[in-house]
Amino acid sequence: MTTIIDGKAVAKKVNAAIQIAVAQLVEQGVQPGIAVIIVGEDPASKIYVRNKNRKAEKLGMHSVVRQLPATTTQAELLAIIAEYNADKSIHGILVQSPLPEQINEPLITMAIDPKKDVDGFHPTNVGKLITNFPGKYPVANTPRGIMTMLHEYGINPAGKTAVVIGRSTIVGKPMAALLTNANATVTVAHSRTKHLKALAKTADILVVATGIPHLIDGNDIKLGATVIDVGMDRDENGKLVGDVDFDSAQEVAGFITPVPGGVGPMTIATLMQTTVELAKWSDLGE
Ligand SMILES: Nc1nc(=O)c2c([nH]1)NC[C@@H]1CN(c3ccc(C(=O)N[C@@H](CCC(=O)O)C(=O)O)cc3)C=[N+]21
């Protein structure tokens, strides 16, 4: 029997806790604030930013969306980041990707104050994650949300074999670090990995984050494994599908996340959680 990991339900639970935490913070004179900067008119990005904004406001947070033209220069974007770095009402800054080609994305990531780095992408915060540094710092929200789901379903990575397919800065690498810090034995696979499917089949915990629709199916999964699908792909009919073929995978997996309704809602909930934490750490010194 397979358990479908209900990301929407876990996100609801996280959001309920956030709403209470925000109300308490507001009572103490601190309203957590997030600024989302979006460059250009990509319709998918705009919808996604609007959803984040709506969620933040619903939870009682201060939320700013800064829409910039596609022609925005590197210098202009840096100036706006500097503005939010100095703005006491903003605790988290998110620069929505993708960015137009005239923008140097790594330099933008570096320009955000690490204490306001709500994505957890700044090298200072990535370095802390890799070194399992003590203390409080933001961690990339998608992998962190996945760890929350594993915890909610009683799946302890310690001693387990984990395979992460995908080596991005946003998902694969921080996912591998979190699983390693949680005492899993982790292999990071990618487009150049030989015998990828055979490797996938060794995993007790399989995380797939490639952007290749239905790369993995039931034949590539160990009986009873936990399968986490980070993919958000479109099939030929424009329907949202994952990197895992859900129908065949669920015949084999012990636990599996659906798309939609798995990792996606947890990413947003964790983003809000991180914003609240940044506000606490900076304004209350917690
Ligand atoms: N700096 C930055 N940080 C990000 O975190 C970031 C970004 N840029 N650029 C774009 C991607 C995309 N992303 C999503 C997260 C959740 C859903 C989500 O909630 N998806 C729902 C439904 C989606 C639908 O039905 O279309 C689900 O999976 O159930 C979608 C997309 C965060 N991103």
From TrEMBL:
Q: Which UniProt keywords apply?
A: Amino-acid biosynthesis, Histidine biosynthesis, Hydrolase, Methionine biosynthesis, Multifunctional enzyme, NADP, One-carbon metabolism, Oxidoreductase, Purine biosynthesis
Q: Name one GO biological process term.
A: tetrahydrofolate interconversion
Pathway where it operates = One-carbon metabolism; tetrahydrofolate interconversion
Has keyword Amino-acid biosynthesis? Answer: yes
Domain Tetrahydrofolate dehydrogenase/cyclohydrolase catalytic as annotated: residue spans: 5-119
Query: Which Enzyme Commission number(s) are on file for it?
Result: 1.5.1.5, 3.5.4.9
Q: Which GO terms describe its cellular component?
A: cytosol
> What range(s) does the Tetrahydrofolate dehydrogenase/cyclohydrolase NAD(P)-binding domain occupy?
141-281
**What reactions does this protein catalyze?**
(6R)-5,10-methylene-5,6,7,8-tetrahydrofolate + NADP(+) = (6R)-5,10-methenyltetrahydrofolate + NADPH; (6R)-5,10-methenyltetrahydrofolate + H2O = (6R)-10-formyltetrahydrofolate + H(+)
Which InterPro entries does the entry link to?
Aminoacid_DH-like_N_sf (IPR046346), NAD(P)-bd_dom_sf (IPR036291), THF_DH/CycHdrlase (IPR000672), THF_DH/CycHdrlase_cat_dom (IPR020630), THF_DH/CycHdrlase_CS (IPR020867), THF_DH/CycHdrlase_NAD-bd_dom (IPR020631)
Q: Where along this sequence does the record place binding of NADP(+)? A: G166, R167, S168
Domain of life of the native organism: Bacteria
For this UniProt entry, the molecular function terms from Gene Ontology, in alphabetical order, are:
methenyltetrahydrofolate cyclohydrolase activity; methylenetetrahydrofolate dehydrogenase (NADP+) activity
Give the PROSITE patterns listed for this entry: THF_DHG_CYH_2 (PS00767)
What does the subunit section of this Swiss-Prot or TrEMBL entry state? Answer: Homodimer.
| Its biological purpose | Catalyzes the oxidation of 5,10-methylenetetrahydrofolate to 5,10-methenyltetrahydrofolate and then the hydrolysis of 5,10-methenyltetrahydrofolate to 10-formyltetrahydrofolate.
The Swiss-Prot or TrEMBL record describes its family as follows: Belongs to the tetrahydrofolate dehydrogenase/cyclohydrolase family.
This chain belongs to the protein called Bifunctional protein FolD
- Species of origin reads Lactiplantibacillus fabifermentans DSM 21115
